[in-house]
Amino acid sequence: MTGLYQSQRAMRHMRRAAMQRGVVAVLDVGTSKIACLILRFDGPERLREVDGVGPMAGQSSFRVIGAATTRSRGVKFGEIAVMNETERAIRTAVQAAQKMANVRVDHVIACFSGAEPRSYGLAGEWDLQDSVVTEQDVARVLSACDVPDLGPGREVLHAQPVNFALDHRTGLGDPRGQIGNRLACDMHLLSVEGSVVQNLLYCIKRCDLELAGIASSAYVSGISSLVEDEQELGAACIDMGGGSTGISIFMKKHMIYADSVRMGGDHVTSDISKGLHIPTAVAEKIKTKHGGVYATSMDDREMIEMGGESGDWEKDRRQISRTELIGIMRPRVEEILEEARSRLDAAGFDHLPSQQIVLTGGASQIPGLDGLAARILGQQVRLGRPLRVQGLPQAATGAAFASAVGLCLFAAHPQDEWWDFEIPSERYPARSLKRAFKWFKDNW
């Protein structure tokens, strides 16, 4: 626990230093692509944090001045499987983005999916010595949250206070400066497989870069794809990537749950490749050009040239109907959505006042997916594109860039996390678990 607490604190300091210099890179390390965006922070906004005004103060203005993507190598299920291949891919993306921006960056903020995330809702209480809530009181109440036993090799990726209550008033975003006697706090803690994070840290170091922050892809996709009302009233973001599908639930502008399904668009491609006995690259082309999940009578007649270079003329001239292709794709897409549904059910998503679900990520682009998703996940489903960010090239505005864009927003205004406060070192015994939803039910 303390190891990562210290390194997260160190990253926060590095992020501040990078912001003062005015340039930072964000890196989305995915299974199918690695995306790098370079941000420039300008003007007085840059210094605002140093003045001691909280990170949520005002929209700090930044623009994207460099962007590049490269095919990801060595990453499986959102986790690094082959170190030197991933290192090469990251270097390629970062160098290309630096070239476009015409600057050199030393600091990156990275996000990744996978790593078997687990969510915990924690609660803590603290009697105030003085009636006005100070920074120290917030640190005290955070340290009073019972941290469960996360299990061997697990580390904390996010630990965010999601609600404060002062005496009988609940739903406070920031209690500092308010008057009362007893301060209580609800915190959302997300733990991940430690080795996955360590591999990513090590890989970024090998690329001669300093890590100035780290986030879960599911979290940052939610930040960029859910509109403000959805984040406030309760919504889920399902980010369908290449190797994994991230799920996050937001409420009152905070993430209160995250999970991931170890399946994504690559699994659909691999099904096509196995089912039709064609190379993965050909299967990927056919999927993006002709894929879908609903067949009409027209599709029986639409023939798809498989194309091949095996030298066997008969085999290379094969054709299949679009109906057959859909027949291969649909079961896997249904399986991914059903897995996502069961994670939402386990989280208690149906207790929220609004059950909006937003689908994003590269694999959400399959034609007809929204209709199928509405059937499996419930009626309120929409396809989401990330927010518009200044300077973002047109090619990087689609759903496949939800986490990269979310990472820009996370870099510009990170939410308060546990390590932003001077937490007293004593640890508390584990007690509470899965309480994240309790206060939402109480507060509505």
Automatic annotation (TrEMBL):
Signal peptide: none annotated. It is a peripheral membrane protein. InterPro entries: ATPase_NBD, Cell_div_FtsA, FtsA/MreB, SHS2_FtsA. Pfam families: FtsA, SHS2_FTSA. GO terms for biological process: cell division. It comes from the Bacteria. Keywords: Cell cycle, Cell division, Cell membrane, Membrane. It is found in: Cell membrane. Residues 24-225 form the SHS2 domain. Belongs to the FtsA/MreB family. Self-interacts. Interacts with FtsZ. Cell division protein that is involved in the assembly of the Z ring. May serve as a membrane anchor for the Z ring. HAMAP family: FtsA. This is Cell division protein FtsA. The lineage of its organism: Bacteria, Pseudomonadati, Pseudomonadota, Alphaproteobacteria, Rhodobacterales.
